[in-house]
Amino acid sequence: MRKRDYGRLMLTALVINLFMSLCISQAQAQAQATDKPNIIIIMADDLGWNDVGYHGSEIRTPHIDRLAKDGRELTRFYVNSVCSPTRASLMTGQSSIRLGITSPMPKITPKGLPLDLNTLPDYLRRLDYATALVGKWHLGVQKPYHPNQRGFDSFYGNLSGAVGYWDHVHGGHYDWQRNGKTFREDGYVTHLQAAEAVRVVRQRDKTRPLFLFFSLGAPHLPNEAPQNAINAYAHIADEKRRIHAAMVSELDTAIGRLLATLDAEGMSENTLIWFMSDNGGLTDYRGMPEVFYRILDTAKWIWGDDIPIRFIEFMRTNTEDGGADNSPLLGAKGSVQEGGIRVPGIIRWPDKLPRGPFETRLSVLDILPTLLDAAGGPSLSVEPHDGRSFLPALSGDKAMQPSPFVTEAFNGNQAIFYEQWKLLLRHDGTKSLYDIEADPLETTNLAAVQPAIVARLEKRLAAMPKGENLAVPLWKVARDPDEFGGAERKPPLAELYD
Question: Between the CA of residue 209 and those of 34, 259, 442, what are the distances in Å?
C-alpha cells in the first residue's frame, strides 16, 4: 500500500472515529437530559375560580380542561391575594410576609425580590436546566432585580405589573423587552407570548432539561381582546364580562399552542406542567384598602365617571373594571377570603403522576420544594422554606397533611391556614374562624365557640418571621401611577435603569 493511500485510510478512520464519538457523546447528553423532567409553570393573571370550563364556566377553555383531565386537578390550591406576593413566594418558597412583599410592586419600587435569596431557576440551573421566562415578571424593575440576574438564562416580556395588550405601555413607559433591551414589535400581548413560548421549546438545547416560566398577562386589565374573540361571546350582556371571557379564551388558545408544540417535539410525557393563577379574579368586590374607596367615592361625587386625576382613575379602573367570576367563593383579588386566594390549579406529569383530583390543601409555597424534588435536587435548598414537597402525595405513594399557610392582603387583612382551620384577622380587629374543609363558602364563623383554636392560630401567626416591608407609600404611587396602556410619554422601562 502506498504511503498516500495509507495516510488517506488513517485520516478517514480518524474522522469516522471522531464522528462516532461525537454522536455517542450527544446521545449520552440527550439521555442524561431525559433523566430529569422538563418543567413548565403556566401562570394566568387574575383568573377567577369560575373562569375555566372544568369548573362549569360559560367561558370555553378546552386546552386548560385537557390539562385537568389528563393531570391532577388541585381542588384546594392557594396563593396570595395579589400578583407580586404570589410570584415572590413561587420564586423562593417563602411566605410573602417573611419576604416583606405583601402588595403589588409598582415600577417606582426601589427594591425587588431580596437579592440574598436563591430562586427556583437558580436551583434548577445547578441541575443543568436551561431556564426561560416568557411574560410578566413584577418582582423589581431595577437592574439587580432583573430576571436575567435572578436565574433566568432568557427573558422576554414585561417587567411591570401589566401593559396595554396592543400598545405594550405601562405608566407611560414602553415595557416590552428581550434580555434587558427594549424590543419593539406589533401584536396582541397574549399572541406574542404564545409565539415566544413555542420558540423557546423548539429552539431549546436538547442536551439539557428545560425550565420555562410561562407567565401570561391575561386576563389582567386592561380589558382588551381581538374583536373576533369578543364577538364569540356576544351572548354575554355585561361588556366587562364579555371582554374578560374573550381574553380568557385567547389565554387558553396560547396554552393550546404550547401543548401542541410539546406533543410535536415528543416532550409531553416527560414534562411536568403546573398550571395556576397568581390570585383570584378581579371583580368589583371591595378588596382594596378602604382609603382607596373614600378617595374614589369623593372623586366620583365631584366629577362623575370622568375623573381627570390619573391616580384616582387608576384606582377606579382597578376596583370597578374587573370581569372575572369567583363564584361560588366569596371575595376576589385583593381579599384573603376564598375568592381572592383559592384559584384553579393543575399539575400534569404523565410519566410519574396519576390522573384525578387531589384534594389535600396545597399552596404556592409548596411549588419550589415539590419541583426540586421532581428534578432530583431537593438537597440543594439552603434557605428556610415555608412549604414542603408534596411529590409523594401527588404520586399516590402516601397521604400527607397540608402545610400551614399564612398570607396578608395589602389592605392589612391576614389569613392563616392550619389543619382544617382558617383564621381571618381583619385590620379593624374582627376575627373569623372557619372549618374551611367543611365550609369552603365561609358561611359559619366559629370564632366565638372555638376560642382556643383562635388563640392557637393567632400565636402561630405572631411567630411568623417578618421581612422588611417593601411597600411604597401611597403618596409616591399617586405621583406616578402604574396605568395599564395608553400613550407612550416616557422613556422605555428597560432604558430607565441602564
Answer: 7, 17, 43
140: left (phi over 0), alpha (psi -120 to 50) or beta: left
Q: Out of 3.40.50.300, 3.40.50.150, 2.70.150.10, 3.40.720.10, select the CATH number for domain 35-283+325-402+484-496.
A: 3.40.720.10
Q: Cβ atoms within 10 A of the Cβ of 210, count?
A: 22
For every residue of 120-154, which 3-state class applies, written as one string? HHHHHHHCCCEEEEEEECCCCCCHHHCHHHCCCCE
Taking the C-alpha atoms of residue 484 and residue 464, their distance in angstroms, rounded to an integer, is 34
Every domain of the chain with CATH number 3.40.720.10 lies at 35-283+325-402+484-496
Q: For 419-456, what is each residue's pLDDT tens digit?
A: 999 999 998 899 999 999 999 999 999 999 999 999 99
Q: Any idea which residue has 439521555 for its cell?
A: 31
What residues contact 215, with CB distance under 8 A and at least 6 apart? 41, 43, 45, 87, 133, 134, 135, 136, 137, 157
Q: Where are the beta strands (DSSP E) in 164-311?
A: 169-170, 173-174, 177-178, 181-182, 210-215, 271-277
pTM here?
0.92
For residues 480 and 161, the answer to whether their CB atoms sit within 8 Å is no
Element (H, E) at 249: helix 239-264
Place of cell 381581538: 226
Sequence-distant (6+) residues with CB within 8 A of 471 are 102, 103, 410
Cell of 210: 428545560
Which residues are registered as beta bridge partners of 136? 158
Between 472 and 86, residue with greater pLDDT: 86
Greatest CA separation for the chain: 103
User: 249-306: per-residue pLDDT in tens?
Assistant: 999 999 999 999 999 999 999 999 999 999 999 997 666 677 778 888 888 888 888 8
Please give the Cα distance from 485 to 273 (Å, whole number).
31
List the one residue out of 251, 253, 259 whose CA is nearest residue 135.
Answer: 251
Q: CA-CA distance, 52 to 345, in Å (whole number)?
A: 11
* C-alpha grid cell, residue 78: 392557594
User: Whose grid coordinates read 433523566?
Assistant: 35
For residue 209, give the 3-state DSSP assignment.
Answer: coil
- Chain length of the chain: 498
